Amino acid sequence: xxxxxxxxxxxxxxxxxxxxxxxxxxxxxxxxxxxxxxxxxxxxxxxxxxxxxxxxxxxxxxxxxxxxxxxxxxxxxxxxxxxxxxxxxxxxxxxxxxxxxxxxxxxxxxxxxxxxxxxxxxxxxxxxxxxxxxxxxxxxxxxxxxxxxxxxxxxxxxxxxxxxxxxxxxxxxxxxxxxxxxxxxxxxxxxxxxxxxxxxxxxxxxxxxxxxxxxxxxxxxxxxxxxxxxxxxxxxxxxxxxxxxxxxxxxxxxxxxxxxxxxxxxxxxxxxxxxxxxxxxxxxxxxxxxxxxxxxxxxxxxxxxxxxxxxxxxxxxxxxxxxxxxxxxxxxxxxxxxxxxxxxxxxxxxxxxxxxxxxxxxx
Amino acid sequence: xxxxxxxxxxxxxxxxxxxxxxxxxxxxxxxxxxxxxxxxxxxxxxxxxxxxxxxxxxxxxxxxxxxxxxxxxxxxxxxxxxxxxxxxxxxxxxxxxxxxxxxxxxxxxxxxxxxxxxxxxxxxxxxxxxxxxxxxxxxxxxxxxxxxxxxxxxxxxxxxxxxxxxxxxxxxxxxxxxxxxxxxxxxxxxxxxxxxxxxxxxxxxxxxxxxxxxxxxxxxxxxxxxxxxxxxxxxxxxxxxxxxxxxxxxxxxxxxxxxxxxxxxxxxxxxxxxxxxxxxxxxxxxxxxxxxxxxxxxxxxxxxxxxxxxxxxxxxxxxxxxxxxxxxxxxxxxxxxxxxxxxxxxxxxxxxxxxxxxxxxxxxxxxxxxxxxxxxxxxxxxxxxxxxxxxxxxxxxxxxxxxxxxxxxxxxxxxxxxxxxxxxxxxxxxxxxxxxxxxxxxxxxxxxxxxxxxxxxxxxxxxxxxxxxxxxxxxxxxxxxxxxxxxxxxxxxxxxxxxxxxxxxxxxxxxxxxxxxxxxxxxxxxxxxxxxxxxxxxxxxxxxxxxxxxxxxxxxxxxxxxxxxxxxxxxxxxxxxxxxxxxxxxxxxxxxxxxxxxxxxxxxxxxxxxxxxxxxxxxxxxxxxxxxxxxxxxxxxxxxxxxxxxxxxxxxxxxxxxxxxxxxxxxxxxxxxxxxxxxxxxxxxxxxxxxxxxxxxxxxxxxxxxxxxxxxxxxxxxxxxxxxxxxxxxxxxxxxxxxxxxxxxxxxxxxxxxxxxxxxxxxxxxxxxxxxxxxxxxx
Amino acid sequence: xxxxxxxxxxxxxxxxxxxxxxxxxxxxxxxxxxxxxxxxxxxxxxxxxxxxxxxxxxxxxxxxxxxxxxxxxxxxxxxxxxxxxxxxxxxxxxxxxxxxxxxxxxxxxxxxxxxxxx
Lengths: 363, 779, 118
Known about the structure:
By secondary structure, chain B is mainly alpha-helical. Helices cover 65% and strands 4% of the residues of chain B.
């Protein structure tokens, strides 16, 4: 039923054609020796991506996401295309930030706004900055006559065609199987975390006050005290209703006089009373996955220690790299016409250029 | 000399008459049983006898590990062996108090398992020790001699102090442990363990100078030849287990009694041939270990080892293990029709052959080695002619004087830098410091030659000769042994007359380096012997006479050799009682009274063998002493051409080694070449093919392993892609087959959402069917 | 406009997500993953290769969020937090290694590190 299920979601022919086009485009757009039709490739790849997005939208227009999805999706994919095709690492990193931003947009579309902002802060704000630092650090010392020159390994990519074909097959297989699998799934209808609103009496209070259901001197009542004198539980009984809304009742005490019960049947009941996304994420993370937090903490600690250890290590240029460097320096000297420069064949290189301390900078 | 002769005559009269009377008395009491009496208890303390030498071995190993550079290992070994000897004396006292009985000392459980319910389906061989008079006899001289020889070796090996010293005394102690297991074990398995243990130690000690190719070759030869014998022994042990269902002596002897009864009545046909085969197989083992005729070739070569080793292992103790085996298992030998005949003939022929070879050798240690082989032949004859007492008795007396002879030879070798050629040594007795060695050598020689009435060797040899002539079936053996006795006397005194008396002369051997650290010893060495005038090129070199340890040992052994007369000069002497009170006593059954030319065989032999010995000595005196002016020549040289090629053949050991080489070694070598070729081509080829296949596969696959990260990643991704493709194809096929049977889905199937009712907000409805339902319910 | 902001609307009861929409997000995610993979396989600059792994992380995160939304709970989102953690740790370590490697050879060419060739 795979074709049927997939066919209900997308036009398989168009999808595969989009894959193929994208693959061809990427293969062309990747930096390569000789003629590098990057722009053509990028166009073809863009067309392929478009075809793919079209393919998934063309069959059943009623379930189309809104156009924000297309905008963000296109930006995300296009930017990631540029990440892998741009010869300059700095630009690749910047395009990656664009991808991140577009992805964050998609997260927001999926009402995961907390994760969207976390993504931007952590990825675009921290990780990518680290990347940029490293890119700046680990760049070959530019020679005098070719300041803008790219490294050889940035100019040529390795096996672009083979890689693209592999990617093509992988993507075709993935989309086919995803289509089949997704076609057999039922969407969830109830937001199961909604009853956690009971854990937030202050929020309920504020919301009800704003709706005019609670007076300023009223507060949510407590139940019978326990046998040992401990105060009883707060009397909130709120649950996710059949349509996802919060239903139930809140018992309110006013002074010493008594209590009253506010039911969700009340017409003034605030419709927006519920768990917000960061609250939900927080509850899930802390209540359901506390072990994961511990593990994450250990991972980060280890990474920090590892980075410190690695950064402290002194590294020498190895033999063949030293030879390469010497040959390069020598050819530069010859090209400039000077012979009695410090980089003669048998003169040891100055330690600052070899020890890996960059304060020596370019010779 | 006249005084000595007078004394001799008196001794002859008194002792001889006693011996005759007692001999008759002993032969009048036949006891044709297993010779095993009742069981008695001894303290378990005596179970330590074998283990104290093992402790010494461990301690010497510790010394080696701690790189001890002193004589500590020797002190340890001598002390432990002395303790062991003391315990052995205690054991002897226990055994002596219970004549004819035996005790079993259980040390610990060793082999004990069952494979069925019945009694026969179990194998028990414990580390238990069987103590009867035969055991005590053997252990007395094993531990006693070992102690003395260890003391001797402490000086003899002093040039090797350090790792080699530790190694020597380790193997030495281990040897005593193994020998004690062999002798004291109460079952054949423990005997076999000891048997292999002494073989191993013999190998280790022969190859002690492992940098010398000849020593290594000799060690290998000893090991390999012994393996042949050990094969026979192990087969015999297994067959004994199959036949008797046990390896323990007491059990075997008990179960052999019905066969013994049959054998006594001469009903050989009623005894299964497998039972009769056991002693023959054991004989092969005994002949291998004790260097008898087909398998004797290793013993002369074993003289490559240090001389104390030759004295202890290859003359006094280990080589008598075969004799012990025959004596211990004598009840089994009695149930075989031919086993004892084989033993007797093997022994007799060996005795004669070795004596003839010994006559023609020039290396004094080798002469002693051949005399050992020859005397071992005597011992086997003593057992084989059903005399029983003579064999073990000769073992005992021989142990002392042969050890002494070897130690005296060793002293010569030690003093003259390895010189052993009797043509290059002469008149040692006249050199200062060599008197004790000369006396010891003389005492040893008269014992070996069997000078009548004053030597223990005479009496024990005489018993064997008398037994041989007393048994009508064994008279030819008696004659062979009598001839051998004359030859023995000749070659023994040939050595003495050539080396220890006559004009003083010496040439040092080729082991000069060993004497550097002894220069202080011979600072006082003889300068008046004119060795400088002989121009041997080592004018600065001086022989050094033995030190206190060697001399003490030699004096003690001289005394012991003489003292041994007490044990044998009567026919029911202590030694004979020791033998007859054990399982070997089973053989004192045949009441042979065959006459030797009308006289009682034993009494006649006293005279005849004495005459033969004196004659042999006289011949040696004439040929090698009287009128000899130089070391290298003697009157015998003029006799040699008259005998044609015989002396040359004898000197070349009758070409037995070459014969064996041609008959066994060469064919086996050729076979091994063939097998090596088969192994190399066929077996190795097959293995190599299996090796080649993965190699070839790897050669094709190796370029994949190019170390480039991208290629690995690409292959990984390609693999995942391929896997996905396969899954997609499989799923498709499954769908096609199941789709045929199922109802074709409508266009509103899974994945799409139900069409929205026109009245409701299309998006809300289209997004959530459940919610739509809920809204309908609300409405 | 209601249609437009429907999916942006944040309330206590998010709308259920139709399977078709989930498929859209998953396809985007798969495409991003494959692009990252192609980049990793073809580009030779070590830093760009690591950027490509980050792309693949990103794709995985996208699909996790999509499933989280589809199942109307926050488990997928919390896993994205872990993905972020691992990505950060990986960036710290991998970039430190990259710097070391660069010091060793004065080059970021991944092909030059082939000491393990068979």
